[in-house]
Amino acid sequence: MEAHQVVPDLLDVAPSSVATVKYPSGVEMNQGGELTPTQVKDTPSVSWSDVDPTALYTVLFTDPDAPSRANPIYSEVLHWLVVNVQKTDISSGVTIMEYVGSGPPDGTGLHRYVLTIWKQPGALPVDELKAAFPPTARLRFNSRNFIANNFYQAKFDEHVREKRGLRLSTGFKDQQIVPDVVDEAPVLTVEVKYASGTIINLGAELTPAQVKDIPEYLSWRVDEPNALYTLCLTDPDAPSRADPKYREFVHWLVVNVRGQDLSSGQTLVEYVPSSPGKDTGLHRYCLLLYKQPTGFISPDFKPINSSSSREERRSFRIRDFAVKNGLQGPVAGNYYLAQYQD
């Protein structure tokens, strides 16, 4: 899965064992072997090892390369979803999304079709899932969010966080966010999803169109339920990484956020999307979360709204803001790359 970048495009860590998937045509999935749409047009049989006879499982089958791997604006397409499966008996489960075979459009190259099995912490709410995923809702499915909302338990969650934290730290250093923006990389990840279905995925390139609206979902680990946080989205590459004379351009700044409730915070800088200038190359967009160890803060800062001039957002320094207001961290973060889009 690492060789085909299923890790990290869909998963943070590869499964520890391989599921057996057999089609009525006689072919089997073989860990990345190429199959034709004709060979996989009918529903397969699926089995797996290390089965807990008291547990329930979910079978999930998606295509992250829609309409193509080069331009996955509809990623992921949900091809099959069955929940509450007993042992390895698919017929015992409830089908949320009926199986459809592969159908990559002409000229879009090879697509990756990924089938995973997940152990459930208990029975999943079938009626809610059917309402959330009607038969027409196959596009822009998000495996990570689906699993995070329905499955993660403490031990597995910590393992995933550790892996993502290592990738985050490495990415911050490789992209020189350390030291251009912060002195040390965070060890925890802020999970972010936009209404378009786009997620921020540790340095993946996104288009300005994908991030044009304020994120609809943000999540991070909260050790103390009443802790307060500051969230910042900043671009150190203004007007370009080669000539960052306006470093940093602040896109979003919210303080006094209680726990993960962003609506509880005070917005000092209203969200504006990425808008790199033409011929300025890739920009780094850094989402940083700081803890407020002293509690509520009242920054000496003139609020900036979405209609304010761009000049007011220039030459911001999150490092200086953090020091001035006694912030700790960044304790969590994420980042993406973007360039000019006509």
Any overview of this molecule?
The chain is α+β, with helices and mostly antiparallel strands and 342 residues long. The chain has two domains: 6-151, Phosphatidylethanolamine-binding Protein; 155-338, PEBP-like (Phosphatidylethanolamine-binding Protein). The chain is 15% helix and 25% strand. The protein has six helices and 14 strands. It has helices at 6-9, 126-132, 143-150, 154-174, 177-180, 318-324; strands spanning 20-22, 45-47, 56-63, 77-86, 94-97, 114-119, 188-189, 191-193, 217-219, 228-235, 249-258, 266-269, 283-291, 328-338. The strands form four sheets. It has a six-stranded mixed sheet. A hairpin with a 7-residue loop joins strand 4 and strand 5 (94-97). Residues 152-159 have low confidence and may be disordered.
Key terms:
342 residues, alpha+beta, Phosphatidylethanolamine-binding Protein
Brief write-up:
The model is unreliable at 152-159 (pLDDT under 50). The chain is an alpha+beta fold.
Secondary-structure map:
Elements (H helix, E strand, L loop, with lengths): L5 H4 L10 E3 L22 E3 L8 E8 L13 E10 L7 E4 L16 E6 L6 H7 L10 H8 L3 H21 L2 H4 L7 E2 L1 E3 L23 E3 L8 E8 L13 E10 L7 E4 L13 E9 L26 H7 L3 E11 L4
Parallel strand pairs: 7-14
Antiparallel strand pairs: 1-2, 3-4, 3-6, 4-5, 8-9, 10-11, 10-13, 11-12, 13-14
